[in-house]
UniProtKB/TrEMBL annotation:
Keywords: Magnesium, Metal-binding. Its cofactor is Mg(2+). Pfam families: Inositol_P. One of its GO terms (molecular function) is metal ion binding. SUPFAM superfamilies: Carbohydrate phosphatase (SSF56655). The lineage of its organism: Bacteria, Pseudomonadati, Pseudomonadota, Alphaproteobacteria, Sphingomonadales. This is 3'(2'),5'-bisphosphate nucleotidase CysQ. GO terms for biological process: 3'-phosphoadenosine 5'-phosphosulfate metabolic process; sulfate assimilation. Transmembrane segments: none annotated. Mg(2+) binds at residues 66, 84, 87, 197. InterPro entries: CysQ/Inositol_MonoPase (IPR050725), Inositol_monophosphatase-like (IPR000760). It comes from the Bacteria.
């Protein structure tokens, strides 16, 4: 049995996210590429590292990675590892800090274990579902992380209604972990994502006691045949009910106008 195979699921996810982050930082340091070319190189390199290690450590599980060809064989498995080797390829290629590495595990369709590496932060950090931290006190004015290039209209409407400050940020993982780290209180997204964009972040956020759901309040479900998972809400528990009520009102208003 390999050393990785001896690790718990949480420790395995964290170890793999850490290794991938270190590889990506080294690659970016020595590469003469930039932009999309550097991002593509990072995606491929991290995937080449992660997928063989996961198969070695958990040969009886299923796998889904953004950078590997999907097969429906994974639908036969109860346990499926869902990977995003570089979440925020654009930010990685632009040599920014707001990108992430996602290593998540869905069991029975639920994101139960995950690690999100934030290698671009000073010293690097990995947030884990098996080692939750206490959330810091929330400020009087809530902060909402949004896309730095295309903030969701629902997010803008909710922020205006509750008086939240907007914090533009890069990757999905970086935004989700900003809420976990206490740098924001809300991450609301409706612009389209896939399972690998949220599986690991949802596992980590849930373990930290945050509210996690679709925008209609339904649970996040994984390892489906269609991996498109377009929206999510991660926020402090006390903010969930008013935000979901507000979103329901927006849907009713849109339906009446159509």
């Amino acid at each position: 049995m390999s050393d990785l195979a001896k690790l718990s699921d949480g420790a395995l996810a964290a170890e793999l996210a850490q290794r991938a982050g270190e590889l990506l930082l080294e690659l970016r340091e020595r590469s003469s590429l930039s932009g999309k070319d550097l991002g593509n190189e990072g995606d491929a390199a991290a995937n080449r590292l992660l997928m063989p290690l996961i198969r070695e450590a958990r040969p009886g599980d299923g796998y889904l990675s953004e950078e590997s060809k999907d097969t429906k064989e994974r639908l036969e498995y109860e346990r499926v590892w869902i990977i995003d080797p570089v979440d925020g390829t654009r930010e990685f290629g632009e040599r920014r800090s707001d990108w992430a590495v996602h290593v998540g595990l869905a069991v029975g369709g639920e994101a139960v274990t995950g690690a999100v590496g934030l290698p671009g932060l000073a010293g690097g950090t990995v947030l884990r579902s098996d080692e939750p931290r206490d959330l810091p006190p929330a400020p009087d004015t809530p902060r909402m992380v949004v896309s730095r290039t295309r903030p969701a209209k629902e997010a803008l409407a909710v922020a205006e209604s509750i008086g939240a400050d907007l914090l533009p940020m890069g990757s999905a993982g970086a935004k989700a972990m900003a809420v976990v780290r206490g740098e924001a209180e809300i991450y609301l997204h409706s612009g389209g994502q896939y399972e690998w964009d949220s599986c690991a972040p949802i596992a980590v956020a849930t373990a930290h006691g945050l509210h996690c759901s679709r925008l209609d309040g339904s649970p996040m479900r994984y390892n489906r045949e269609d991996v498109y998972l377009p929206d999510l809400l991660i926020c402090r528990q006390e903010l969930a009910a008013p935000i979901l009520e507000m979103l329901a009102g927006l849907r009713e208003e849109a339906a009446s106008e159509s």
